[in-house]
Every structure is written in C-alpha cells, then in structure tokens.
Specification:
mainly beta; 0% helix; 53% strand
Length: 51
C-alpha cells in the first residue's frame, strides 16, 4: 500500500492511499478520514459494519 496524500481536516486526517488489487488486476485508490480520537485508540466506522 502506498500513501498518496495525508492532510489535516476538521481535527483529523484525510488520507488518500493506493494498493495493487488482484481482484481487479489494477491499482485501486481510496480515501479514509481518521478523526482525532483515532490517535488514542479504535474509533467506530460508519455504523453499517458489524460490531
């Protein structure tokens, strides 16, 4: 996995990353927002993931 960018926003960090996908046979890019609380420990996701 490769970090494309990481920028501070709304008290957290917005990151853009890329990885090689074997399923799609190409590089995939995704964004991830980590709130400030993530520096202290786990944080909940969007709410649609199982507990």
């Amino acid at each position: 996995m490769k970090t494309i960018s990481e920028n501070r926003a709304f008290g957290g960090v917005q990151g853009v990353y890329t990885h090689a996908s074997t399923a799609c046979a190409c590089d995939m890019t995704f964004g991830l927002f980590l709130p400030a609380q993530a520096e202290e420990g786990p944080v909940p996701c969007c709410g649609s993931c199982p507990a």
